[in-house]
Amino acid sequence: MTEEERSEMLSKMDIRKLLHKLAIPAIAAMIFNALYNLIDTFFVARGVGEVAIGALSIAYPVHMIVLSTGLMVGIGSASVFSRAYGRSDKRSMHRAVGHALVLNLAFSLTITLVAYFFMEDLLRLFGARDEELLRYAGEYLSIILIALLPFSLSITFHHLTRAEGRAKVAMLSLVIGAVLNIILDPFFIFDFGLGLGVQGAAWATAAGKTASCVYILIQAHRPESALSIHIPSLFPLSPKMVGEILAVGFPSFVRVALGGFIVIIVNNLINVHAPAGTAALYIAIYGVINRLIRFSLMPGHGLVQGMIPIVGFSYGAKYFQRLKDVMGYASKLLLTYFTIVLVLIMAFATPLFSLLSPEEDAFFISEGARAFRIVALGFTFVTFQVILSSAYQAMGRPLRAFLVALSRRFIVFIPFAFLLTHLFGVQGIWWTFFVADFVTGTLSYLAYRYEVRSLQKWKHQGESVA
How far is CA 81 from CA 255, 319, 410, in A? Predict the structure, then answer.
């Protein structure tokens, strides 16, 4: 599909068909991307034990920091690119891609070096009080650091590829990495293969991330893509464009990085409040819940990724009615999906934890299933937070997107986490997730209604040409 055909598609196609066309590949990609995390967890549990899952949770904040920087640069540059695409500004499109590459390299290399030189101190800060946890987490992270750069680059170019309407290419980049990771996991982890244990899981992940990066960079340089890297667009960096990319992408950085920060807080609260001898298992339970949440909710985030390029293009072209329609339709689909997920978790939480316990540990299974059900109670309230934050970013409204992202991950979650664990011990952690989702979800719904009324007013004032 040529650039002109993609522009015609984004501006003229029926909004429901367009959202399906862009969202379905993103949903498939998200399922595969989340699936490899879940399968990693399954193989590590079966090959090493439940405690090793806790080690993955200890190392998880570094993964989240890299993901957050890749998303910040990717979503920020994709927003700049989409709006430039909508107004046919070729120069800004090229510069958005060049700036994204340079920023990505700078952030990724910095994180890798810091994590390498301060690894043990970081892992202890992240909650590794148990020496076995510390050893496993160090083995895993020492390998993962090798793949931080290709991981971050693949995330950034995934969003840029989606911004130009090549949803299938973006999907395949994630699928290729996830499938390779899944294939390599058992061979690297178990004794019938290389028998590397936790390190084997890390090597499989590193290989998958690298393959994903190589594929999407090759696709970016194909003739039909507008993303090819133009050397003159790399330097000098424009302070204005750098500022815009970082400002628009910063809410995603905050949302994901604070997710890593919450992992650190929760791990340390577990160490303080867990009954004697159970902290390592509770950290493992939390690690499993994190991966199950990601797998459960990622298809919903894939739906929103299909919405983002439509919102960005429509806003840049002043097609306000299309913008309003796609937000409304996406909200209905997302609310329906999250409700279905909630019902399934209530029914199957116990069997899921049983699969991840090779020794059929009754404590791990019963406590894990109960915790997961409590956390899932807030899923439906996430709907309008996700829609609103993503729409603000696509429209280039970073402050509003930042406030939406900050509310759940910082303003509400952290004080309630300390309060409820003080009152109810470890169980208070799980109820904190529900409280944070309920409060921020309600506020986001009210803000969403306000934005819909504003779009309607702009249309009636004649600003829309749709």
Answer: 22, 17, 30
Pairwise CA distance, residues 209 & 147, whole Å: 7
Max Cα-Cα span within the chain = 69
Nearest to 85 by CA among 150, 4, 15, 31: 4
| pLDDT above 90 for 45 | no
Write the DSSP string, 176-240.
Answer: HHHHHHHHHHHHHHSTTTT--THHHHHHHHHHHHHHHHHHHHHHHTSTT-S-PPPGGGTSS--HH
Whether residue 144 is predicted with pLDDT greater than 90 in this model: the reply is: no
pLDDT tens digit sequence for 364-382: 899 999 999 999 999 888 8
Whole-number Å distance between alpha carbons of 103 and 81? 15
CA gap 270, 258 in Å, rounded: 18
3-state secondary structure of 277: coil
Q: Whose structure tokens read 């930042």?
A: 402
Q: Select from 82, 9, 13, 19 the least CA-distant residue to 329.
A: 19
Secondary structure of residue 361 in the 3-state scheme = coil
Instruction: Output DSSP code: residue 359.
Output: T
Q: How far is CA 326 from CA 151, 308, 380, in A?
A: 30, 9, 19
- What digits encode the pLDDT tens for the residues 436-458? 999 988 888 888 788 777 766 65
Q: Structure tokens of 362? A: 């009754």
CA–CA dist 175, 181 (Å, integer): 10
Instruction: Band the pLDDT of 465: cuts 50, 70, 90.
Output: very low
Q: What is the pLDDT of residues 93-130, one digit of tens each?
A: 778 888 888 888 888 888 888 888 888 888 888 887 77
